[in-house]
């Protein structure tokens, strides 16, 4: 059991929740300049599959990863400003992708229109990372974990 809150008395068990009582993150959404083109690029070059591929404004694209548990939503609302992702520091927002071969994946994605923000490097904990920007400026982190989380 996971303790949340402060237990006022042993009779008050409402502050104890089991893990399955928490909500699950369903998706992360991004307002982007061209959801249709981005959806196609992410499917073709990052291996995502379409769960929803709307051709009607705002062109909502729900893309599913290979595990079937992570969704990325892309949309292009005309009445909402699109962030300037290309000028944002990667620590503000990035999408992280596991890679078995950073050098090969960097080369492949650059050939598909991505640009290198930070070349592959090994950081203090032993992880190998590279930072790219997709053709629309969103930062893509490629990572090979020294100690995988999953």
From TrEMBL:
Which InterPro entries would you find in this protein's record?
Glyas_Bleomycin-R_OHBP_Dase, Glyas_Fos-R_dOase_dom, VOC_core
Q: Which residues form the signal peptide?
A: none
Look up the domain of life of the source. Bacteria
Name the record gives this protein: Glyoxalase-like domain protein
Q: Fetch the PROSITE patterns from UniProt.
A: VOC (PS51819)
Q: Which CDD domains match?
A: VOC
VOC domain residues are: 24-145
